[in-house]
Each structure stands twice: as structure tokens, then as C-alpha cells.
Amino acid sequence: MGGRLSELLEAKLVRRALALAIVLSLIPHPALDRLWPYFLGLFTVEFVLRLLFGKRTWSSALFLIVDFVALLSFVPAHWIGAAPGAVRLLRLARLVMLLRFTRELAQDVYRVLTRREQVRQLSFVTASVFGLSFVAAVLMHAFAWPGPPPHFAEQVWWAFRQVESPDNLVPTLEEHPAVIALSLGLTIIGIFVFSYLIGLGTTIVEQVLAAEKRRPVPYERHTIITGPLHGTESMVDEFVRIYTKNAALRRLRLGEFWRWLRGKGPKPRRHALPRITLLGEREPGFLYEPRMRWVVHRQGKGANGADLRLAGAPKAKRAVILSDPREGDAAAVATLSALRAQNTQADVFVEVQHPETAELARDIGGTGTFVLDAPHFVGLFLAHHLTVPRAREVFAELMSADGNEMYTHFYVDGGESLRAKGTFAEVARDAHERYGITLVGAFVAPETVTRGEHALLRLDHLSPWLNPHRAPEEDEELAALVGTENGITLDTELVQGFFGIAPTYLPLRRACRDLRAKGPPSTEAHRGLFGRSASGPKRVLVCGDGEVRRPLIESLAHFVEGLEVDVFGSTGAAAETLEGEGRARFIASNDQPADAAARFLESDVEAVVFLAEPGITDDTDAHTAHSVLRFARACRGTNGRRAHMIVQVEDAARGAALERDVERLSGGALEVTAVSTSAITNYFLVHSVFVPGVMAVYERLMGVRGEDLLYVPRSDGRGASAQTISGRELREFFAARHSVFLGLDTEDAVVLNPEPDASFTIETIRGAFVVADTRRVASSDD
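Given the sequence above, the corresponding C-alpha cells read:
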């Protein structure tokens, strides 16, 4: 109890309110003077609480004495038998009370000014000014020059004024020549003296600001981002944008309070502002952008416990630990260990560059630690760009604040649970019809979700069930939990939450709290409109070494039967059998662009992938672009054959320029997609931080087991009953075929989560994006 009251007294809002009350009490206005009983009561309560529960330091004891004196100034003079003038003098103690609310700054100024170096410099300047004034006064008194005051003390003051300001020069040239020369000399010396003082003052201000940076951030329940900060602008900007997009969550609604009081809803929660602390060696320049007002920086290293305390690690709600590809994972693991020594409850998102580090990081971090195996994720991501047309546009929308994103909602607060009895198809239909969201799956577990410190959700025991239109036969753990029969009814005790695509989190939350079963979908609408899912290229060239290559090839083999991959790298002379009767040949090459181009021209290669290789040069994108452009120039003259090229880059802007150059140099032989994997990784980390549990969803969605993101092209439209089709009909068409409809690929754009009544001309539809089992997607004729 005492600790909470002590924290309350030091809370920013309370301190500001008390400071405002002091300022109002000092304003000499009759209306404010009549409020003295309220001021007296307020500051009496504050004084007693601070006396009982405040910190026990010498400075706090001194301020308590001042507070008591100031408290007496609120009491009428005749109550304490004091003269009115004495009470007015006591009111000045209220000014000292204000210093209590800026004591950190006052302490910094005091420490800087009392440093030996500063004291010596200030003493030297002060002694020099008064010494010059004294010498000038002695000369004037000795020679009795006319003009200056006759008395010695006044002459010292006259000389000091000449040094202090050029405005105090003798007004005319009619004065004694010696006085004119003396005044001019003192003024010129004074200009140099005060220029020195200005520089000294600037130094003092810089040191005070530096001291401010060495104080812990005033945030609580905030997010820490540490690691190499030079590439985090897109991450921080995306974090701020997604908070801004969901600004409605900051408001508390009376209706939610009323439902909570009646026991028919959860306790209302207000989401905070995007408070972020960056911990790194240098302050990034983008912090001065308008949207970065809630982002602060502290200099230091994440592996240093003292620097973590400056970043507010003990009170942080989340932390993002970035790994530097040039340094490996040692720094990331050390940072995780140092962070857990100070905060065991925060959610920590760790980026690693080597698969073997992932399990080590999970063991060190414990509960609430989420590890992103960056090369594995990038490999899966690049594979989807080869197997899913326009995957870049889909992921750019799903993982950024533009358009629709993947959100999650859990039944955790009191009064929340799934109440609708029915199949997933029935509740998904209700969510789409009434709230305009696309449910993609459910979280299931035999135990309910709980909240830890800072109201963080504990989700380690949950399993994401993608596409619950059918039972998860290949996932043994999930199948044992939910059953193995198709069309299974959702168990209201087993389902702990849902995830889906929505413009913001709010409509998903509203839908999940009031889901209903609205009947099965129609199975006959628009038969013959869509064909089987696209499988991807069968002949692929891959250029580059590194950790990304392995998950890329394995993911491609999962989607493409009989895949053949030629891999050009630093080592070779080996072959490997892949899933689905595929084969990978590893070819050693000292000149990858030339050797890969020769293989491209002599075979029926359908796709080419150039991987970034960090560490070879300081500018990874420049090295990659040079290889790609050489390859493109060598691939001219393919007699009309056209292949898809994926290029992994860091900077999205440089990738766009590379696309134009490759198209031109290859003579149209290559259709290029430059993928900024660092940007998408940053977006993914931000989305995982903001949306609890979404990392597990994407691991299932993009992994090599179970339901996948697929592209189903439009067929010739046989049996289509109309020239247009609605979002409602599209959802029902794929739901009847045990698939989750996500959106459309049209001639104009990619449209995710279309409204139920949105109408699309069938001729403009190129294909659909769905979540389904790769080997079980039925054609429209089934």
C-alpha cells in the first residue's frame, strides 16, 4: 500500500496537478484568494502522505520543511497569531515548492556548475572582469581624469559597466581622450570576455542535456528497441503508424463500462500511446520527424545492465532485440540475458541470424520470449514470392498499417467467451456479414488465457488453428486437441480466441465478443469460376550463399512437385534430394552472374533468385545490384522466353531502381521483383509486438506444414451465373470448398478482405488468395 502511494505521489500527472495548484495559489486575484481552504486541504493531504510514505533522503527532508512552512502560508494570519506581512513572506516558500517538481533538472545544473573544471573557468572569468574594473578605477582615480564619477567605488562600477555592455561607451568624443581610450579598451575586452562566457554557457547547457540523457526514461509499460538502430526507421515509423491507425482504442466508452458493471462484458482497457525507447550507440536522425514525438533515445549497449536501466528496462512492457548480421547472434543473446536479469515479465522479441541460436534464446528468455529466425523467415517469404503471384502486394498490406492487417483477439477478460455453437463456416459468415472482417482461424487450448504483469497475455500454451473449415489431419498435436472429422463444431470451451483480417483491431474485438452462427454457405454459387491453385516454377536458379538459401529451397520443394534447383555459390559438386521428388544441385562458381546466365540460356529455367550476402562489402545492395545487372545483360536474346526474377535487397527504394534497370538490360527476358526483406522483417516484428500471438499464426501460415497461403487463378468461367460476383459470394464459394477466402487479384489492384456487398466484374478478376491445404484444394468442378 505504501509503495503504491509513494509511486502515486511521484506520478507525472499528480506532480503536474500539484504544480498547477501552487501556481494558481500565487496569483493575486480575489477569486483565487477565496479558494484557500481547498488549497490548504489539498496540500495538507499531500504533506501527510509524503511524510508517511515518501522517500527518506536529505533532500526530501529539506523539502518537507519547506512544504510545512509553505503550508502555514495558506492559514489565515489571525489563526496563528502572525502579522499579515509575515504570512505574505511565508507565501514565498511556495516558490521553493515548485523546485521540488523540477529537482532532477536543478540537480543536474548544480552538478555541472560545481564541477572543478567549470568552477575554475567561471572563477577565472569573474576575477578577470573585476580585476579589469579595479585597475581601470585605480588609473582614473590616480590621474583624476574628468568625466567618470569622482568616488573610487563609483569608478569601479563605471569601469565594470564598460566591460559588461558596449551600450555603456562614453556617449560623445568630447570626453577626455584617456577616458575615451579606457572606455573603448574595456568595451573591446568585454566583448571577448562575454564571448567566452557565451561559449562556456553553451558548454554548460550541453553538459546539462547530456546529464538529462543519463537519467532513466520516465516511461512505464513502454517498448524498448535495441541493437543496430541505423536500419530501424521503417520499424519505428510503422510502430507509430499502427498505433495511430488504432487510435480509437485509446478512448474508453461508457457502454463498455456499463456492460462491465452489469457483469456482461470484460473490464474496459485503454491502449497507451506508442512510447518507445531506442537503445544504441548513436541517436538516429529520424527521431526529429513529426510522428516521433513519443520516441526517445538512450546511448548505450543492450548487453550492459546500466544502459538497460537508463532505457527503463525494469518497467518495460515489451522489448525488441535486433541482431546485426555482421556480428552474429552473440550480442543479441547477451542482450536477452541482461534484460531478463532486470525484467522477467516483459514480452521479448529476439531476431537471430542462425537457426541453432533460436533454441538457445528461447531457453535463456523463458516465458514470453518470441524468437524470429530471420534467415528462415526470409527464405519462406521469398519462396512465397515465387509461388504466389503478387505476393509482395499481399504481404505489404498484411504486415503494414496500409489497408487490412492480421489481428488477434483472446477470450481472457472476465465475461468473455465464445458463445456461438456452430461450425467455423457459420461463425465466419456472421463475422463477415455484420462486421466486415475475414476470420482466418482460431486459437485453441484446454486452458484459458491469463494475464501477467502489465496485463500481458500468456499465450505459450495456445495452438493456432488455420482454416478450421476442416480438421488439421497433418498436425498431430492440434488434431489430438480438436478432433479429426471435417465440419467439426467449434468447442466453446476449447476456443480461446480468433485471428482474422480487419482494417483495425476494434471490429475484430466487437465481432469476437458477439459471434453468432448464421447457417452454412452455399455450395453451388459460380461453379467453374476458379481452377486449381498455382504451383510455382519447376526449374529455378539460386545465386548466393548464406542461411536464407536452405529454407528457401525447402519451402519451394513443399509447394512444387518435382522441383529442380541449380544453386551457384562458393562451394559445390554436390546434389541433394528434395521433398516431392525434387533435386538441388550445388555448383561452385567464382563468377556467379556469368555461370548462372550461361545455365539460364541453355535450359528452360522459369525463375531466378539472387540472395543478398551481408558481410562481403559495406554496401550489400550495391554488390547484389552489380551481380544482378551483369546477369540481366548476359540474358539478352532468349527468343521470347520470359522468367521471373526475385532479388533480395535491403533498401526498397534502390530495389525499385534495380527493377527498371534489369527490365531494360535483359530486353524483357526477366520479370523482376526486388524484395526488401529487411523492411518486411521490421514490419513483421512491429506487427508481432502490437498483435499478441500473430507470430505463431504466420509461422503456421508460411511454414511447410498444414494450411498455406495459396493463389487460385480464375478459369474460363464455365458455369458462372452472372457477370459480377460479390465479396459475400466469394467467401461462400471457397468456404464450401474448405478454404478461407482472403482477397482478390484484379486487373487494378490486390483487394484483401472485401466487403460483403462489394461487387467485382468477373472479367477483371485474375485470381484469388486463399488459405487452404496445398494438396487438398479442390478445383471448382469438384
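The chain is about 45% helix and 15% strand. Try to locate this feature in the C-alpha cell string yourself.
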